[in-house]
Design a protein that fits this description.
The chain is α/β, with parallel strands linked by helices and 296 residues long. Helix content is 39%, strand content 19%. It folds into 2 domains: 126 residues, Rossmann fold, CATH 3.40.50; 129 residues, HAD superfamily/HAD-like (Rossmann fold, 3-Layer(aba) Sandwich), CATH 3.40.50. The strands form 4 sheets. Strands 5-4-1-13-14-15 form a 6-stranded parallel β-sheet, with helices on both faces. The longest helix is centred in the C-terminal third of the chain and has 18 residues.
Length: 296
C-alpha cells in the first residue's frame, strides 16, 4: 500500500528565508519531503511579485520549486475571482505589476488605477477635474487592492469611485506593514484601509489569516485545505489561517514569533506543533507522516 503523502503549505519570509538569507536547513528539509512524495506549495501574502520571480530565489536555497507551486495573495485573488465570481471579467487594480500579471494570466482585463487617474487629473483643489473614476476606468466590475509603492490621491480616488458605484472590493491582504531588510514600510493593509475608509465598504480579504489563500493553494495540487500542514512563523497570520481551514500547523521560531508569544496565546490560537529550527521541523514532519500512515 502506498503511504499517504503530506500536503505542506509553506510560508516564505521567516520560514525559508529571512530577508536575503536562507533559514539554515529548511530548504533541504523540504527537498527531502518532496523526494518522499509530499506536495510542497509556497504561500505568501506578498502582493508585489509575479510567481515566477520567486523561483530562482527558492531554488537557490535548495528547496523544491516550480512556478505552479507558488501561490501568492494576488494569484489566490485571481483564482478566487475566477472560481467564485465568473461573471467578472474587468478589474481595476491598485497595486504592483506582479499583481496585474497574475490577474491577466487568469483571463481578466486589467485597468490600472494610475492610468485611469490620469484621465481625471485636473486643476481642482484635490487635483482632479471632478470626473467619475468608474467611468474613466471603463466601468470595471471589481477593484483589487494590494501594495502599490506608487500610490497617490488620484489612484485612491479612482478606486473609491468604482467601489461607490457598487463593484466588488477585494484586498489581496490586510498586512498593515511591509518589512524590508532596511526598514518597516506601509503594507497593503494600509492602502486597503484608506480605500475602505473613503468608500465605506469592507473588502473581501484573500491573504492570511483569511482562509482563501490556503484553500486556493490546496486546490492547485488537487487536495483539500484541511489535509494540509501549514508551516509558518506568524500566529496571527499563518496559524490563524490554518485554524480557519481546519488544518494542522507548525509554527517556526525562525521569524516573527517567540516561544513566549506562543505560551501567551490562548489555546484556540496555538499551532499544532512548534519547531525552533530545521532539525525540529524535520522531526515533526516525520512524526506527521507516521501518524498519516497509522491512520491509513
Amino acid at each position: 500500500m502506498t503511504s499517504p503523502s503530506l500536503l505542506l503549505l509553506v510560508d516564505l519570509d521567516g520560514v525559508l528565508y529571512r530577508g536575503a538569507d536562507p533559514v539554515p536547513g529548511v530548504g533541504a528539509v523540504l527537498a527531502a519531503r518532496a523526494a518522499l512524495g509530499d506536495d510542497v506549495v509556497y504561500v505568501t501574502n506578498n502582493s508585489m511579485w509575479y510567481r515566477t520571480e520567486y523561483v530562482d530565489r527558492i531554488a537557490g536555497m535548495g528547496a523544491p520549486v516550480s512556478a505552479d507551486r507558488i501561490v501568492s495573495s494576488p494569484r489566490a485573488t485571481a483564482l478566487y475571482l475566477r472560481d467564485h465570481h465568473p461573471a467578472i471579467r474587468h478589474v481595476l487594480t491598485v497595486g504592483a505589476s506582479g499583481m496585474d500579471r497574475e490577474l491577466e494570466d487568469a483571463g481578466f482585463r486589467v485597468t490600472r488605477a494610475g492610468d485611469a487617474g490620469e484621465l481625471i487629473r485636473g486643476e481642482g483643489v484635490e487635483g482632479t477635474d471632478g470626473g467619475d473614476g468608474w467611468e474613466a476606468a471603463g466601468r470595471p466590475e471589481a477593484v483589487v487592492v494590494g501594495l502599490d509603492p506608487q500610490i497617490d490621491y488620484l489612484r485612491l480616488t479612482v478606486a473609491t469611485d468604482c467601489i461607490r458605484a457598487g463593484v466588488l472590493f477585494i484586498a489581496t491582504n490586510r498586512d498593515p506593514v511591509y518589512p524590508t531588510e532596511r526598514a518597516i514600510r506601509p503594507g497593503a493593509g494600509s492602502i486597503v484601509a484608506a480605500v475602505e475608509a473613503a468608500s465605506g465598504v469592507t473588502p473581501i480579504s484573500i491573504g492570511k489569516p483569511a482562509p482563501y489563500l490556503l484553500e486556493e493553494a490546496a486546490r492547485v495540487v488537487g487536495r483539500e485545505p484541511a489535509e494540509a500542514i501549514m508551516i509558518g512563523d506568524g500566529l496571527t497570520t499563518d496559524i490563524a489561517a490554518a485554524l480557519a481551514v481546519g488544518a494542522r500547523s507548525i509554527l517556526m521560531l525562525t521569524g516573527v514569533t517567540s516561544r513566549a508569544d506562543v505560551d501567551a496565546a490562548s489555546p484556540d490560537e496555538r499551532p499544532t506543533w512548534v519547531a525552533a529550527d530545521a532539525a525540529e521541523l524535520a522531526a515533526l514532519l516525520e512524526l506527521a507522516a507516521l501518524l498519516e500512515r497509522a491512520g491509513d
